[in-house]
Amino acid sequence: MGNVASRLDEAGNLFFKDQNRFSIASVTISNSRRRLLTLSPNAFPAVRYVAKRDAGDDTPIEYIQDPDVPSTAPTPTFLLRLANDDELVFNFTFILRQTPTGNVTGSTVNGVSTSLPEVSDTILNGLTFAHASNSKELDNLITREFHANPNLQNNSNVQLIGDFSTDGTPSVSVEWSWTWKPPKGPEDKGGGWRNSCSLLDYDQRTNRLNTLAHFSFWVHNSVRLLPSPRISSPNLELPVPPRSRVPSTQSTASHFSDAEITYHNIPSITPPETVDGAPPAPTQPPTPASRES
């Protein structure tokens, strides 16, 4: 989660239609071993939700840049990053509140006149939770697929929570949990899975699902299958011992003979002595040494 957006089309942000009517008081995320995170609003109405670890847990809280934000977005958004080392259990606490009507009711008690604002009960019919990999797929799920099949709760990405009402009380608290499981399909770009979630209620008059709250998060695929070790076939080749190279008598004699010939064929590089400054007389080229047969 993160900052609360003012519009639903702001991807990657947390959105509430009307926090005076429906809000999330807290969310705890845990696995089979321990509690990982607690998310709570900074105030009421909430401007942002703050993620905290349990006391003594110094593990850093990680975020990832939202890969689903369009290129035309003015600023990048970031999603809470979780790890799928186990199934993740989300425990929600919802709050329903009576809403003021804008009218004022006057009454007199013991001769004292008071004016109180009128309120109306909040009624949620068919409170529903739906999730998909991105906002576009989620919108298609709760509009086109819902109209094609009104029994949308049969979809694996949809869960019916129930009907709730304040019923004359100022507020009502509702506890509900949802378990995230790794999708069977391939992971998204970035090495994990993006999740867009919405809480909705059913409007009988218009026959549609209205969004009450929306949020997104990222689950990183930390459990990767390692490639199987490569099993090489046994080496059946017989080792060949290295050959010893001992020079023969003929090759040794030939080597020294060639060296001597080369030595005698090298012309002298020392110039002859001059007499009274006269240029030296030209010398004849050396006669090649003859080989003895």
**CA-to-CA gap between the ends?**
101 Å
Number of helices: 3
* Element order: H for helix, E for strand: EEEEEEEEEEEHHEEEEH
How much helix is in the residues? 10-25%
What would you call the shape?
A: globular
Which residues form runs of ≥5 with pLDDT under 50?
Answer: 228-238, 248-266, 274-279
Biggest sheet layout: 8 strands, mixed
Radius of gyration: 43 Å
| Class of secondary structure makeup | mainly beta
Question: How many β-strand runs?
Answer: 15
Mean pLDDT over the full residue set = 79
Q: Report the portion of residues in β strands.
A: 35-45%
Would you mind describing this structure in some detail?
This protein has helices at 135-142, 144-148, 249-265, and strands spanning 4-5, 14-16, 22-30, 35-41, 49-52, 62-65, 78-83, 88-97, 99-109, 112-120, 123-132, 158-165, 171-180, 192-203, 208-220. Strands 1, 2, 6, 7, 11, 12, 14 and 15 form an eight-stranded mixed sheet that branches. A five-stranded antiparallel sheet has the order 5-4-3-8-13, with no helix packed on it. A two-stranded antiparallel sheet has the order 9-10. It has a domain at 4-101 and 114-220. It has three helices and 15 strands. The longest helix is centred in the C-terminal third of the chain and has 17 residues, at 249-265. The chain has 293 residues and is mainly beta. Residues 228-238, 248-266 and 274-279 have low confidence and may be disordered.
